[in-house]
Amino acid sequence: MSVKKDYLHKLEVELSDWDNKINELTVLADKAKPEDKAEFIGHIEHLKVKQNLVRKQQEELEQAHESVWEGLKDGIDSIFDDMLSYAETLFSKFKD
After folding, report:
1. Which of 15, 30, 73, 92 is the residue whose CA sits 20 to 30 A from 82?
2. What domain count does the chain have?
3. What's the whole-number mean pLDDT along residues 63-68?
């Protein structure tokens, strides 16, 4: 497999993992105090927007020429880093 195909496979796995994380956060939102629930749902929606952005970039990456895909990869990795940091903050805030 090429490096690009390996990355696309890894990306698909990570997107699936994000589906699971977002589902976990949704369960926590359902259990949250009413005054926290709206805020929690807003944060989840923010993560879904980021995830959808990654999915769109994934489509671009699949079509990208070998010479430009690295730049797209860096952008996707940056979004995942932001999402991970954001989700960790949410988990710690709302699990208490």
Report:
1. 30
2. 1
3. 82
